[in-house]
Design brief:
With 221 residues, the chain is mostly helical. It has a domain of 65 residues: Serine Threonine Protein Phosphatase 5, Tetratricopeptide repeat (Alpha Horseshoe). The chain is 68% helix and 0% strand. It has 12 helices and no strands. The protein starts with 17 loop residues before the first helix and ends with a helix.
């Protein structure tokens, strides 16, 4: 989940050009961030992770959230720089506090699994919630899990169903499966076999094995 470089990369990324380099060298943080992505993706120039890190660092130090997220991910995975998950958390935190939903999700996951930060389910759910409220489907699914199992938040099946529904409607296969299970068991929602089949089918169509198995069991009854 954390293998991201720019959580929601611009739909129209700026291509590599002499003008882009000129603006980056002049200190334009957005240009520096875009140039970093050009080097990372090999977009108009040879791939060079170290060069990408160089430009993302310049932009991140100016407070540019997208670059902070990308720089954090490079530290997390050790791409173009020595792997340092604590350093990754540092940059994720800076971007997350500026409202970057990708950074909020990454930071939440670090707290959730104890990667680069002390495991803290409450802190994880706090950041999942912030990303979920911005419409991030995976964060919505993760927040649903927290409410379902009572991890970091008070257990609340209805709240779990609420967030799984949001994620499921965006196509998240795990959320679709979890939502179908709630309709099957009547957890947080009235039992509804038709609705359960609908969501098991959507999840199964994406190749999610547990959904396929559940769907087959329902058909055999």
């Amino acid at each position: 989940m954390l293998a991201v470089s720019g959580w929601a990369e611009d739909l129209k990324p700026e291509p590599y050009s002499a003008e882009l380099v000129k603006r980056a060298e002049a200190g334009d943080a957005k240009a520096q961030s875009e140039l970093g992505m050009c080097y990372f993706k090999g977009r108009g120039v040879a791939k060079d992770y170290e060069e990408a890190v160089k430009w993302w660092t310049k932009a991140a130090e100016q407070g540019y959230a997208r670059a902070q997220l990308d720089l954090g991910s490079r530290h997390y995975w050790g791409e173009g720089v020595a792997q340092d998950k604590q350093e990754a958390v540092k940059w994720y935190t800076k971007a997350a506090k500026q409202g970057d939903e990708g950074a909020q999700f990454c930071l939440a996951s670090c707290y959730n699994y104890g990667n680069g930060a002390t495991k803290d389910k409450k802190e994880a759910m706090k950041w999942y919630a912030k990303a979920a409220e911005q419409g991030d489907a995976v964060a919505q699914s993760s927040l649903g899990n927290g409410y379902y199992y009572g991890e970091g938040v008070t257990q609340d099946y209805k709240e779990a169903v609420k967030w799984w529904t949001k994620a499921a409607e965006q196509g998240d296969a795990l959320a679709q499966f979890c939502l179908a299970r709630c309709y099957t068991l009547g957890q947080g929602v009235t039992k509804d076999e038709k609705e359960a089949v609908k969501w098991y089918t959507k999840s199964a169509e994406q190749g999610f094995p547990p959904a396929k198995e559940a769907f087959e069991r329902m058909k055999s009854k």
